[in-house]
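Thread amino acids onto this structure.
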């Protein structure tokens, strides 16, 4: 069996991720190391691009060294370098791409530029190497919300996307309103466990629209006005939630989460039905949300019994180097490389191109 050892490098947002992955010609993968240097943006309640890029510049070489050490491999053993070239924050992407290109050029190692959103899809292939097509994917991260159809492993069709805020961004902003630290998604889901998801009937934007597009800005504003109403006005900062009881906060978090999940699951179910999907795939940081996972599994298995739901295994939800290496697997095995001189960052890189 043919195999390629791939060094995967991810730096598109606020996690420096480096992995060493073995890609096998039977479609299986072995993750030998998946090192992450996470950044802390709690003080600014979000990622400041310039600051994030500087953190990547500091972290990238130590994270590469850590991954190689953990995998017990030297650079000589690496067959291919895979690196995220977009979409993402330009300064952050440049750190990963220029580091990858320097290693590729000086060590004469082939390189492959990777689309970050395609890699979120690929993150599920580690545990599900034999996926059945057509696939309908729901990709939900801090920067993107997408429904993507695939007829084969390399053919992507964007069915719908967000018109304003991404799902993860809405989680982060509502968390901030409730005085919770960044990233807000895990915090909202944590306090939502003690809340009533039907306490407040927040809007479910575009739920009944015929397309597969999303919009979460209005929902976020509805939550803000609700908090203002309860706390008697104030700024958009966490202060205004200070007068809310913990139970009220939990109810707001659970009801907000319910609105987002209802919209996401309804739309992906509709797409899976329309396109006779054999597989519904969930990817991106928000896919770590247990309530979303369970609801998606429940709706698809009851409404579309012939359709399998695949979800990344833990450690592969949020940004990481392994998903970048896995996404490069098929091309690495076919030895379809890029010229290092031609690997360019594209902050707005579209899926499927
Ligand atoms: O994919 P990712 O790591 O980075 C981007 O490509 O954007 O996604 C990060 C996003 C953040 O907005 C974070 O709040 C959200 O994923 N997230 C969650 C959960 N864990 C992370 N959102 C909801 N529930 C979670 N458990
Ligand atoms: Zn991501």
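Threaded sequence (353 positions):
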């Amino acid at each position: 069996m043919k195999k390629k050892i791939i060094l995967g490098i991810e730096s598109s947002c606020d996690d420096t991720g480096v992995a060493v992955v073995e890609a096998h010609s039977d479609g299986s993968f072995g993750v030998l190391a998946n090192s992450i240097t996470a950044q802390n943006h709690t003080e600014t309640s979000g990622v400041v691009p310039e600051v994030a890029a500087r953190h990547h510049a500091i972290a990238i070489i130590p994270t590469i060294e850590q991954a190689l050490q953990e995998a017990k491999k030297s650079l000589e053993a690496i067959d291919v370098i895979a690196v995220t070239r977009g979409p993402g924050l330009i300064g952050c992407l440049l750190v990963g791409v220029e580091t990858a290109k320097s290693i590729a050029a000086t060590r004469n190692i082939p390189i492959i530029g990777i689309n970050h959103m395609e890699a979120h899809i690929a993150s599920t292939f580690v545990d599900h190497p034999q996926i059945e097509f057509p696939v309908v994917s729901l990709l939900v991260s801090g920067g993107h919300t997408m429904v993507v159809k695939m007829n084969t492993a390399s053919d992507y069709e964007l069915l719908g996307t967000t018109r304003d805020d991404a799902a993860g961004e809405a989680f982060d902003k509502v968390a901030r309103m409730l005085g919770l630290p960044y990233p807000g998604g895990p915090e909202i889901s944590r306090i939502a466990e003690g809340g009533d998801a039907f306490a407040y009937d927040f809007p479910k934007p575009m739920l009944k629209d015929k397309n597969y597009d999303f919009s979460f800005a209005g929902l976020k504003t509805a939550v803000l006005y609700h908090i203002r109403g309860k706390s008697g006005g104030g700024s958009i900062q966490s202060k205004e939630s200070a007068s809310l009881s913990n139970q009220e906060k939990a109810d707001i978090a659970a009801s907000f989460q319910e609105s987002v999940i209802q919209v996401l699951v309804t739309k992906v179910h509709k797409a899976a039905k329309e396109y006779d999907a054999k597989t519904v795939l969930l990817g991106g940081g928000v896919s770590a949300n247990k309530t979303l996972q369970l609801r998606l599994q429940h709706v698809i298995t009851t409404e579309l019994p012939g359709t399998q739901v695949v979800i990344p295994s833990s450690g592969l939800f949020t940004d990481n180097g392994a998903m970048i290496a896995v996404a490069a697997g098929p091309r690495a095995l076919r030895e379809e490389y890029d010229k290092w001189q031609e690997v360019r960052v594209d902050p707005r890189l579209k899926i499927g191109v």
